[in-house]
Design brief:
By secondary structure, the chain is an alpha+beta fold. The chain contains 10 helices and 13 strands. The protein has 3 domains: 145 residues, no CATH class; 86 residues, no CATH class; 166 residues, no CATH class.
Length: 408
């Protein structure tokens, strides 16, 4: 194949973004409104992320074979009188292993050299770039120079290509998210307009009740498209994300204070530590006189913020008692929730000496929970963030923070 010669990479990336947009636009309104956003984003990311080609020159290997070479291929100094006559010559073959999608080398990046169009052979079975050189002179240095020239041609625009693909991949999640949100906003505006007409709306009957999972191809990534059972969509209250982070930061500040003053908080029960957190949270937030809602304690160890009889924020406070109890705490917390996009925190107090070991255990075991979707960026060494689904409805996703504090 000819490298950096087929088309511009920018055209390819633009077509990929358009394909993403068309995929989202082709979904039914019920699907877009009800699907778990994080799961759908991960599904589209896995399908449209480009696999950057990696060329492993550090793992190159060589072999040789004999081949009949016509006289016309010989250098002038050999003075071959009959150009059609063939002569057996050794062929030195370099095999450069690669990984990723090597076909992307066909495209010209945003910046490319005049070496574009250089021909290379690809062996997809062995996943190697194959470079062959006729050993006319039995001169190892000449062969090595020819190989080094080829590598220079291959890598001439490679870094620019890699940078352009990485930029596309890194921006893909935000592009998908903004496209989904734009479609949801258009649907909501249309729904509000239709509702303002004051007459019943007849739903289309051809919308399928479920959506099939595409059958994976051999050696391809397995793409699992989230399944949604179509139903009416009801807007649900959600705690503003900025306020959620502020709540978690206050909890984290109080927890760090527990660690700084162990003599004050040593021997306290879960309820006592919970009350310290509650007393700090409550005066910092005002959620409106209309609902009269504020932080409250509704169980033995939890802190809740409720709206219209449903929980939009809950923090469950527990001492660390091992993996099983940790997962049971998450089960208990999830049991409070009915709304999509509820915000939660599991606050764990650790008396064990090996606090770092407990942190690592918690980070590993939480991924085994059946409602775990994905890990998000951590805010601190002891504050981890996750996306979970609500039991019995995998499309209702909630944010779950795990905040852990050492109380010897």
């Amino acid at each position: 194949m000819k490298i950096y010669a087929e088309d511009t990479l920018d055209n390819l990336l633009s077509s990929k973004r358009l394909e993403v947009k068309n995929r989202i636009e082709s979904e039914s309104e019920d699907y877009i409104l009800n699907v778990g956003e994080e799961q759908y984003i991960e599904y589209l990311k896995s399908e449209f992320t480009l696999d950057i080609p990696e060329i492993h020159t550090d793992k190159v290997y060589v072999d040789t074979y004999e081949r009949d070479i016509p006289g016309s291929r010989f250098p002038m100094e050999f003075m071959i009188s009959n150009p059609h006559k063939t002569f057996k010559k050794d062929i030195v073959v370099y095999h450069i292993p690669y990984s990723g999608s090597i076909d992307l080398l066909r495209f010209r990046p945003s910046s490319w050299t005049s070496m574009a169009g250089y021909e290379i052979k690809i062996d997809k079975q062995s996943r190697t770039i194959v470079l062959e050189y006729i050993n006319f002179y039995n001169d190892a240095e000449k062969i090595k120079r020819a190989y080094n020239d080829s590598v220079r041609y291959i890598f001439g625009s490679y870094q620019h290509l890699k940078n352009d693909i990485e930029a596309y991949n890194n921006g893909l999640e935000n592009f998908i998210r903004s496209t989904i949100n734009a479609r949801r906003q258009r649907i909501s505006k249309k729904t509000d307009f239709i509702a303002s007409l004051g007459v019943p709306v007849k739903k289309k009957t051809e919308t399928p009740q479920t959506f099939a999972v595409p059958q994976p191809k051999l050696k391809d990534k397995i793409q699992v498209r989230p399944i949604v059972h179509t139903k009416g969509f009801k807007p649900e209250p959600t705690l503003d994300n900025d306020n959620y982070i502020k709540i978690l930061k206050i909890i984290n500040d109080v927890g760090k204070n527990f660690e700084r003053l162990p003599s004050v908080y040593s021997g306290k029960y879960e309820e006592h530590l919970r009350d310290h957190i509650l007393l700090t949270l409550d005066p910092n937030f005002e959620f409106g006189s209309a609902s009269g809602e504020t932080f409250n304690k509704t169980g033995k160890t939890d802190i809740q913020l409720r709206y219209d009889s449903s929980v939009v924020f809950v923090a469950e406070c527990k001492f660390w008692e091992g993996e099983k109890a940790f997962l049971a705490t998450i089960d208990q917390l999830l049991g409070y929730l009915t709304w999509r996009d509820s915000k939660t925190s599991v606050v764990i107090f650790v008396r064990n000496k090996g606090f770092t070991s407990v942190l690592e255990t918690a980070k590993e075991v939480i991924k085994k929970h059946p409602n775990f979707i994905r890990e998000k960026q951590a805010n601190d060494d002891n504050w981890f963030n996750y996306i979970f689904s609500i039991p019995d409805d995998s499309n209702k996703e909630i944010q779950l923070a795990v905040q852990m504090y050492h109380l010897p």
